[in-house]
Amino acid sequence: MEIYRQGREIMLSCGNLHQWLPGHPSEEMIRSDIGRGESYAILDGDTVVGAFALIFGSDPTYGTIYGGEWLDDKLPYATIHRLASTKDSRGVAQACFDWAWRQTDSLRVDTHEDNVIMRHCIQKAGFSYCGVIHLLNGDPRLAYQKIKTNSKNMIKSVAVYLGSSGASEEYMGFANRFGKELARRGYKAVFGGAAVGTMKSFADGVLEAGGEIVGVFPKGFKGKREVAAKGIRLAMPELTENIEVKDMAERIAVMGSLSDCCVILPGGYGTMEELFFHAVDNEIGLHDKISYVLNINGYYDGLEMQVGRMKQDRFLNPDSNVIVFVHSMDEFFAQIG
């Protein structure tokens, strides 16, 4: 209970006089959290520096929200309650949010209007303000939610990165079949907009199956040296929508913004750049969209081994799912839908 005593003192020192009155949270409440397996401690070495409850299931105080709406009111969610830290600790709220975020596709939290520090931490962690809820005693709280756009029932559009160069008929045929299957399952496709290589085969497949496909193409781009020398038309006009951007970096950013996840098919340097651009933005918290690498015919075996080595040697978080390797179309679609 010492952590909660210090938590109350932090609130009072920051002008938050009404959120946790003396005796709240009660020892009975904390014991109840522990008994239900919903209470967690945050450690700095061997020292406990924070505590919180993570509760799965519908919260009775979240049934009605005023002045806004939840980002999603259908996904099962978990709620963070009773988060407190010691006075001299740092990063406790972020550690709580990071861990809780890995446990669920939809996370909610609320706090008092006067709790300026917590409001800052919540917004910094990527939560969206949704409105005002009322506790059982009628007191108002500001409510926030964060949802994973890569949740299975949230994925509507897929960015597809693949080759602009000529490839074997096997890869061309796979790209075409993948495009058809993406369209057949009702996903909107986003790709680089080029009418060459496996990119064209993929786009043809989407269109042949009656699907929706958006091309994102850099203005004036002439492609690789050998393609530019031949004067080959690169941009593919016969798409659902064409978006022109200023350069290659903007192309990747726009494709990411238009999609809920990305999938990497066999390709070259450009495809690798797109994969790592997308993955790094996920790792630093700019989005939470998974990069799926479709490793067919062992094409990405070396990359899969390298990512595994990065995790083994702790250059990457061993639990990271920023990049997920799949080995067939069926496995990919099972992952996203």
Shape call:
elongated
Task: List the uncertain runs.
Answer: 224-232
The biggest beta sheet is recorded as:
7 strands, parallel
Main structural class: alpha/beta
Give me the CATH fold name of the largest domain.
Answer: Rossmann fold
Oligomer: single chain
What does this structure look like?
By secondary structure, this protein is of the alpha/beta class. The chain has 2 domains: 2-147, Gcn5-related N-acetyltransferase (GNAT) (Aminopeptidase); 152-336, Rossmann fold. 35% of the residues lie in helices and 23% in strands. It has helices at residues 2-13, 27-35, 92-101, 116-124, 169-184, 197-208, 225-230, 248-257, 269-283, 301-312, 329-336; strands at 39-44, 47-56, 78-85, 106-111, 128-134, 140-147, 157-161, 188-191, 213-218, 241-245, 261-264, 291-294, 323-326. Strand 7, helix 5 (169-184) and strand 8 form a beta-alpha-beta unit. Helix 5 (169-184) runs parallel beside helix 6 (197-208). The longest helix has 16 residues, at 169-184.
Question: TL;DR of this structure?
Answer:
By secondary structure, this protein is of the alpha/beta class. The chain contains eleven helices and 13 strands.
Keywords:
Rossmann fold, Aminopeptidase, 2 domains, 337 residues, alpha/beta, 11 helices, 7-stranded parallel sheet, 6-stranded mixed sheet
